[in-house]
Hints:
- By secondary structure, the chain is α+β, with helices and mostly antiparallel strands.
- It is 52% helix and 16% strand.
- The chain has a three-stranded antiparallel β-sheet.
- The longest helix has 15 residues, at 47-61.
- It starts with 7 loop residues before the first strand and ends with a helix.
Amino acid sequence: MTTATEELLTVPEVMRLLKLGRSKVYDLIRSRRLASITIDRSRRIPAGAVRGFIADRIEEAA
């Protein structure tokens, strides 16, 4: 769950962190594998959601 003090990242920031393209990041959001929120017309991804996504992928690979 997102806390009020948790950092919110933009899609381009997530693209850089995950080394993925814009379409792939939006695909992860659409498929609900990466949590996000909308503020007006802007999409934001909680930093914890990115950390959780990475941890899940590492766990699956193990």
